[in-house]
Task: inverse folding
């Protein structure tokens, strides 16, 4: 009788989460893979359907899909030689949560920009209406 596996220690769990985030961001770094994810938004597609708009071989698109599968962004269901793909949004959500920690840095810049634009708009002389 095999012993139950030991639960993951917090450090190991953190390492696992970081590794998954690394895979997600690496997968999202490629424009072809981002386009594949966009095409899968809300529908399941065959690999051949996913490959159709790209000027590359089916094998090359399949390699991109495998990167997305390893990152957990795409799930594949195989039935014989047919492979159907669907988007798995969980890892994207995890990446968004991670990125959101840093939103305070760019939100301040947006607030500053909005203030400047308001000042510019307020300083403009009123527009005259043309008489007809």
Result:
């Amino acid at each position: 009788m095999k012993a139950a596996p030991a639960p993951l220690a917090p450090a190991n769990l953190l390492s696992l989460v970081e590794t998954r985030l690394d895979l997600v961001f690496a997968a999202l770094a490629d424009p072809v893979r981002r386009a594949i994810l966009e095409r899968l938004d809300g529908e399941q597609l065959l690999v051949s359907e996913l490959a159709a708009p790209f000027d590359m071989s089916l094998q090359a698109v399949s390699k991109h899909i495998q990167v997305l599968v390893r990152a957990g962004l795409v799930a594949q269901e195989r039935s014989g030689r047919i492979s159907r793909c669907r988007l798995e949004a969980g890892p994207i959500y995890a990446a968004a949560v991670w990125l959101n920690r840093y939103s305070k840095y760019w939100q301040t810049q947006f607030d500053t920009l909005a203030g400047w634009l308001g000042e510019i708009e307020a300083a403009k002389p009123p527009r005259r209406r043309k008489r007809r």
